[in-house]
């Protein structure tokens, strides 16, 4: 008897990692061989580590600009701008689209249609401008106190950790297709907790290292709470989006990244001040 057609193999852990890097950044990586819900779960679980890597690159841009004599404000603009380039502006676009959808006041199906449009409405523009201003101002405050690089890594990790928690089985997708449907419900709560612990420990250790080696009196114990503040802000927005739209979409997930990162940066700035 001849063998029937072979079924496609399940994804591997490497497929999930490639999916995480390729989706969340412009960093060159080979495309995953298989993209399924298992790969999506690995990608969303690994998201905060990709965020920390992006934050490290942005921190290097900030540190290099400060070392070259650039003042903290334009250096912060350069760092925030580099992160937008590293992510193709994907999360900022999602934030603008979600603002337009929620701000429209239309029923869920109509709001989702508005979010799919390629243009940006007034709610989206205002939200983008205010968010970027907050990020730059908070980073400038942290950079002036010697906390800029640590704050940026903390914020970027917090933003992507919000993705992990947004992909729990209790969070439904708003559509049957798209990125939201692919990743929704792919992360178990135990995995989310397991990845949160090293993120909190990592940002605390990084801040402690700066406090121990550097000339600044770094309040290193506040960096883990900054991550938690980011998660709380993302939870509030996610709850609103699920109630309003019926679930999450790719745009909602992108908005959660930016909101969590901004909240974490604001806490870092408050500590620096």
TrEMBL record:
Example GO BP: cobalamin biosynthetic process
* Pathway participation: Cofactor biosynthesis; adenosylcobalamin biosynthesis; adenosylcobalamin from cob(II)yrinate a,c-diamide: step 7/7
The residues forming a coiled coil are: none
Q: What is its EC number?
A: 2.7.8.26
Q: Does the keyword Membrane apply?
A: yes
Location in or out of the cell: Cell membrane
What does it do?
Joins adenosylcobinamide-GDP and alpha-ribazole to generate adenosylcobalamin (Ado-cobalamin). Also synthesizes adenosylcobalamin 5'-phosphate from adenosylcobinamide-GDP and alpha-ribazole 5'-phosphate.
Keyword field contains Transmembrane: yes
Enzyme class, spelled out: transferase
Name the family the entry cites.
Answer: Belongs to the CobS family.
UniProt catalytic activity: alpha-ribazole 5'-phosphate + adenosylcob(III)inamide-GDP = adenosylcob(III)alamin 5'-phosphate + GMP + H(+); alpha-ribazole + adenosylcob(III)inamide-GDP = adenosylcob(III)alamin + GMP + H(+)
Query: A Pfam family matched by this chain, by name?
Result: CobS
| Entry membrane topology | Multi-pass membrane protein
MF terms from GO for this chain are: adenosylcobinamide-GDP ribazoletransferase activity; cobalamin 5'-phosphate synthase activity
Q: Give the signal peptide, or none.
A: none
Alphabetical keyword list: Cell membrane, Cobalamin biosynthesis, Magnesium, Membrane, Transferase, Transmembrane, Transmembrane helix
Name of the featured protein = Adenosylcobinamide-GDP ribazoletransferase
Give the source species. Streptosporangium sandarakinum
| Chief location bin | membrane
